Every structure is written in C-alpha cells, then in structure tokens.
Fold this protein.
Amino acid sequence: MDAEDTLLAIRHQIEQCQACPLAAGRLNVVPGEGPANSQIMFIGEGPGYNEDQQGKPFVGQAGKFLDELLGYAGLKRSEVFITNVVKCRPPENRDPQPEELAACRQYLDAQIAAINPRIIVTLGRFSMARFIEDGKISRIHGYPHKVESRIVVTMYHPAAALHQPALKDALIQDFSRLRDIMNQPTPSLLEQNYTESTESPTKENPPEQLSLF
Ligand code: SF4
C-alpha cells in the first residue's frame, strides 16, 4: 500500500472512530489534508466550529492567517499536509483532554509514519507536547529540535495570535525563519538541535497558556 492509500485507509478508520467522547459531538471528522509525499507537516490542536462543519483543517479565520503565514515560508497550502492532534471537535472549543489525546494518538502516529515528513511544525502547546513534553513554547518557538530522528519546529497556534499582536509578530518571524530551516540539509539541522529560543513575544509576560481554536 503506498502512502496515499495508507492515508485514505486512516481517514476511513477515523470516520468510523468512537474511541473517545468527542465522537458524540462531531458533525464531521477532520482527519487532515495535503499531499501524501509532503516534506513538511503542520500539526494543530483540534477542529473548531468551521472545521467541524466542513471536515477540513484550518478553514476559518485562523486558516486564512495560516495561509498568509505559509507565504512567509515560501509555501502554499497545497504543498503541505495539515492535521490536528485530535480529529473531532472538542465541545465549546475546550482543550482536548488527556484521554482524548491518548485515544487519538494512533491516527496521528499512523499519518506521520505514512507521510514520513522531513520537518514537522507543531502549532500550539498540545501538539508541541506530543514531541517535547516539558517544552515551554514561549522559550522554544521557531527553532528546530531533534525528536526521534526528525526535525520538529514548535510554533504558536495561529488562532491564539488573532487576538494577541505580539504572538502574530512572533509567528511571522518564525515562519520567515522556517524558510531558512527548510533550505538547510537534515544532518545540519540535527546537529543544531536548539533547546530554547532567546526571544519572547512579550517582554514582561510571555504567554504560555493559550486558547487555541
Ligand atoms: S477525537 Fe480521535 S479518538 Fe476521539 S472519536 Fe475522534 S477520531 Fe476517535
């Protein structure tokens, strides 16, 4: 089975999934979308209202901002695979619960294995925690990290930046830097393995708790 067929099989499994309470409230599952041979994969938190309505990731205001951000990295949405750590909408856009994250992890793991991206970009703290458990996003955003032989770049969630100008600036800066990261060979990136950023989006009170949908 090639990667495209594998992704389709994962999608069908997600469509049938009842493994956590989020199944009860969904209108549509949001498995993710993008080319199966994508070199870069973006992982957000979970579907919001618009995503649940349409069954597609990042289609609301945050999605428009993500499209704009991709442009700073020299990317188009059609070139990247975009998904979330949970594939069904949490009620009232609340944070996904640990048991929901655990139940849904199998699908994200299978998608990563099928696509085998060179670079994974996490958007928000829940997707960051999937790869860097004790990371502080205000300290490590925007830089490459070596995680299980992959390059993981942690970023703020675009939805969080819609109401916080400082985060918007940080995201624009991080996506601009992503262009340089993508242009570097993997061995060079693995050697860098930054552990923290020297920048904060605000000087006095860098935000760490984000409302992310
Ligand atoms: S969020 Fe994930 S684990 Fe929960 S029902 Fe949806 S697909 Fe299944």
The beta strands are 40-44, 81-84, 119-123, 144-147, 150-155.
